[in-house]
Design brief:
- The chain is about 35% helix and about 20% strand.
- The chain contains seven helices and nine strands.
- The strands form two sheets. A five-stranded mixed β-sheet has the order 1-2-3-4-5. The protein has a four-stranded mixed β-sheet with strand order 8-7-6-9, sandwiched between helices.
- The radius of gyration is 20 Å and the shape is elongated.
């Protein structure tokens, strides 16, 4: 919201030097969340907040992100205000905490911690959500509640720069288009999803889902 952005901007201004040149900042490091903090309700960084962030960085304050978003999502979100890259607040060379602490990077962007969800857990989650033990089946033709369940819920696995799922879904499209998360690639079966993730995506950070009312 605009009030939230104004509050963040006002807080950031305490960390930059005064017009006289003497430093008024009270910290050398500033750790910030994205959703509900730097990002407004449209998932964008407002120009006023962006200006305050640039002033903080220029003053020598180390700004880094701690968020539930994946690192590629954080970079895309920062790019809405051209705050990605080496001179911004997040990049592949920045420290940061992502996926609720499951993916952590230190100075220079080096990995400090990566949590991988066990593949048997991932398998069971996808099989339960998509009602399948091998290939994908929405259950839309079985006359039961399988179809409505599949339509009301979507599941994706965060795998590095991409996500993996079993079927395209409006929730997953919104996750990428609005909330900046990696695009969900749909695979034909749980086995294919697991194999592709292990081979190409470097394993699983976590899984995430959404459901409608």
């Amino acid at each position: 919201s605009s009030s939230s952005s104004s509050s963040i901007s006002a807080s950031l201004e305490r960390f930059v030097p005064s017009a006289s040149g003497s430093s008024t900042r009270k910290a050398d490091c500033l750790v910030l969340d994205l959703d509900g903090t730097l990002l407004n309700r449209d998932c964008l960084i407002t120009p006023h907040t962006a200006e305050a962030l640039r002033d903080a960085v220029a003053a020598g304050v180390l700004v880094f992100i701690a968020t539930g978003k994946a690192r590629p999502a954080a970079i895309r979100a920062a790019a809405t205000a051209r705050l990605d890259g080496p001179d911004g607040i997040v990049s592949r060379a920045h420290p940061g905490v992502f996926l609720q602490g499951l993916d952590v990077y230190g100075r220079g962007g080096g990995a400090l911690y990566k949590a991988h969800m066990p593949m048997d857990v991932v398998r069971e989650a996808f099989e339960r959500v998509y009602q399948t033990s091998n290939g994908f089946s929405s259950g839309s033709n079985d006359g039961g509640d399988g179809g409505s369940r599949a339509m009301a819920m979507a599941l994706t696995a965060f795998c590095g720069d991409e996500c993996a799922t079993l079927a395209a879904h409006p929730f997953l499209e919104e996750l990428s288009s609005k909330y900046h998360e990696p695009r969900s690639v749909a695979w034909g079966s749980v086995d294919e999803l697991l194999q592709a993730a292990a081979a190409s995506f470097g394993g699983f950070g976590t899984t995430g889902g959404g459901k409608g009312g």
